[in-house]
# Entry
Amino acid sequence: MDSNRINEILQLIVESAAFIGKPRNAIVERKNLTKSLGTKAAEIDRLLLERVDNMVRLFKRSNQNFFNEYFAARKVMNLGVRHQGSPDNSIDGSSTISFGTVPIEPDDGN
# Structure
């Protein structure tokens, strides 16, 4: 075996080592992204509450249909069924926990 062939084999070993780690790296990356979802969702919820909800309140009198539809759409209906036993589930299997905070009564103070 000559040195060129040995170098080719060593290069293949190095390249294969990079491929071997890719699935594990993808799992770690997915786990980290999933972990950050809660933080990102909280940021989005905060922006909706502090900015968009307040801007939409400006339309309460001039465009009442838009106002009502917006706040109706902001109410989260979490009807998903969990397959694992959890104290968060109601008797019928629907989740009692919802994402986000929505004002119960959209009110502009009038």
